[in-house]
Amino acid sequence: MGTRERIIDAAEQAIHEFGIAGATTRRIAVQAACSEALIYKHFAGKEELFLAVLLERLPALAPALAELRQSVGKGDVAANLTAFALTALRFYARTVAIGGGVLGDPPLIAGFRAMLAETGAGPHLPILALAEILRTEQRGGRLDPAIDAGAAASMLMGACFHRANLACFVSLPDDDESWAGTVVATLVRR
Amino acid sequence: MGTRERIIDAAEQAIHEFGIAGATTRRIAVQAACSEALIYKHFAGKEELFLAVLLERLPALAPALAELRQSVGKGDVAANLTAFALTALRFYARTVAIGGGVLGDPPLIAGFRAMLAETGAGPHLPILALAEILRTEQRGGRLDPAIDAGAAASMLMGACFHRANLACFVSLPDDDESWAGTVVATLVRR
Fold first, then answer.
1. What is the pLDDT of residues B27-56, one digit of tens each?
2. Nearest to A19 among B106, B124, B161 (CB)
3. Which positions 116-135 of A are in contact with B (Cβ < 8 Å)?
4. Per-residue pLDDT for A170 more than 90?
5. Cβ–Cβ gap B159/A160 under 8 Å
6. How far is A179 from chain B (nearest CA, A)?
7. Which one of A64, A168, B107, B170 counts the least CB within 10 Å of its CB?
8. Which of B96, B103, B105 best tests the A interface by mutation, with the highest count of A CBs <10 A?
9. What domains sit in chain A, N to C, each tagged with a CATH number?
10. Which among B20, B155, B185 has the least Cβ separation from residue A104?
11. Residue A96: which of B103, B151, B171 has the nearest Cβ?
12. Closest CA of chain A from B74, distance in Å
């Protein structure tokens, strides 16, 4: 395993154990058995390192979106969207601590914002991708054309993101499966 | 102004400047011109102090929910919900850094979780309150009875919460007003 990989692993471990706030480059360097200087040789800063953890170590939404895109025109729209919502929920549950940690750290968020603006990336892109898939289903006559696809995508992703956050604070009464099924049924109803 | 108030003000200021991660009791004590021991005399821990900031200093959702409840049966349902969504969006924009900071700090989140479980409070309660309002509008025949009120409330609050988070990371293309209007129209459509 290369040094870069070892540093990313160590960062992931440190975030898991101590949170973003406690995942200092000193701790990461000890865990990766390298110097702090070597971390900065591979990553411009903590922002870049944490983004690498997000993009390279955590389950991504991209495969789930690709699978949903593959299922356009096939099977049951509501069932496909429910399966996607459950994957999104799991994804957000895994990433909520990193995203939250960044939000709780003003200098880090400024760095993230600049980096995302430069690369054109961002946590809003899955909403746009989902909206495009919903539009394709509308063109195929499988989804109510009166639905605004962008708004529907905002609501489905937003509900999953919010629920993943809430679950960190309280025990939610209903289980994820029935919750996701009811949310999608309400969203796609005719 | 009493000591307790002065400490809460200092904590709010420290969170704003340094984030949750940097809002140490030492910094808060300096700002409040008191000892760290005095902070712990008024608050069992950082969790309790940060919760006091959330509950006593930030604009609350409760008045917005009360206003929405007052408007049941009056005016246009979609317009009422859109106005509420905009208030929720502003509320979440103000609280996202505190909530996120807690999520990025594993010991803090454990303390928060225990405290919320003990008091029966929690960030999921506004969803339940909104769902109850939607049910009342359904009973009055002003909202499609096919809508699951709980799911609709999850989606509306979730979309607002998610958008407040996204806005910290990227510049969103559409303005809040038209976004909220389209989301509500998609949610309440018949």
1. 999 999 999 999 999 999 888 898 888 878
2. B106
3. 116-117, 122-124
4. yes
5. no
6. 7
7. B107
8. B103
9. 1-57 (1.10.10.60), 59-190 (1.10.357)
10. B20
11. B103
12. 24
Q: Looking at residue A99, what is its pLDDT? A: 82
Q: Residue A163: its chain B contacts at CB < 8 A?
A: 154, 158
Q: Any idea what DSSP says for residue A23?
A: -
- Phi then psi for residue B189, to 5 deg, are -55, 150
pLDDT computed for residue A59 by the predictor: 65
What's CA A6's distance to the chain center, in Å? 23
Angle at A98 between CA B59 and CA B108, to 5 degrees: 60
Concatenate the DSSP letters of all residues of B101-155 into one string.
HHHT-HHHHHHHHHHHHHHT--TTHHHHHHHHHHHHHHHTTSS-TTS-HHHHHHH
Mutate which of A165, A174, A182 to test chain B, going by most B C-beta atoms within 10 A? A165
* A181 vs B: CB within 8 A: no
DSSP string for residues in B40-73: HHH-SSHHHHHHHHHHHTSPPSHHHHHHHHHTTT
Per-residue pLDDT tens digits for A51-78: 888 878 776 788 999 999 999 999 999 9
Give the whole-number percent of chain B exceeding pLDDT 90.
66
Mean pLDDT of A118-145: 95
Contact partners, residue A67, CB within 8 Å, separation at least 6: A84
Taking residues A168-173, report their average pLDDT: 92
Mention every residue, 6+ apart, whose C-beta is less than 8 A from residue B102: A100, A104, B20, B50, B108, B109, B112
Which of these, A188, A174, A151, lies nearest to B156 by C-alpha position?
Answer: A151
ipTM of the complex: 0.90
Q: Amino acid identity, residue A46? A: K
Instruction: Tell me the pLDDT tens digit for each residue of B64-107.
Output: 999 999 999 999 999 999 999 999 999 998 888 788 878 877 77
The number of residues making up chain A comes to 190
Asked if residue B62 lies in contact with residue B27, where contact means CB atoms within 8 angstroms, the answer is no
pLDDT of the residue at B89 = 96
Single-letter amino acid, residue A103: L
